[in-house]
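Morning. Coffee machine broken again, so started the prediction first thing and wrote up yesterday's gels while waiting. Chain of 246 residues, entered below exactly as on the submission form.
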Amino acid sequence: MTEPSILFLRACLALLAMPIYLLSFLGIWEPFCKKIFFPFFLEKLSAVHESKVKKQKQELFHNLPNFKSPSGELKLLEIGTGCGPNFQFYPPGCRVTCTDINPNFQQGLSRSMNKNQHVQYERFLVAAGEDLHQVPSGSVDAVVCTLVLCSVQDVNGTLREVLRVLRPGGVFYFLEHVAADRSSWRYFWQQVCYPTWKLVFAGCCLTREIWKNLEQANFSELSLRHTSVALPWTPIKPHIIGYAVK
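Came back before lunch.
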């Protein structure tokens, strides 16, 4: 399909979403999305997403205890904690610092913390992935980032911050939805949905090839595989999952 086809279908989708575009123009949508819609939507999506990826996450995080510091502690920083769907996979006694650019996830986050009291919660920081200046360099054993790199302003900047806060030998775990194969129909529809999806879902970008950023970052070891997560009627089926060692 050609670029005119993409532009035409984008215009059709924008017409369907015209009320949201109008609210955005008036400056109403962004605060409403940040405070009410996105926290509500993300908690619901997380429940569906977790049911699809639970086994993959269990496999992903199974070696987390291997990255304890010499003192025996495991200090973990989670970027974009949201409602805390990853807490259940962390080992007992793990000391977690939560960060998110959006401070409006308190209700869902509190529910998740109450369900997962085997974890020690250190603090919650309102911070973007690209700017973790409140976290000292080399101070954590592990960093976790799931379904976040799609919406950060600067993927490479976020990965630089990950490397900075990790101690030597520390580990970065990731699970992210990514662009489909460029020759596929799925990629075509990702391009069609891109502007409206980004507006509605708080800056989420559908066509990022995040595996390339990870491959170009200065990790000493990278274990990455492409996978699919069946989420009907969404353009975010292609994912990458894995970990990287500083």
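The first helix runs from residue 3 to 16. Going to sketch it on the whiteboard this afternoon.
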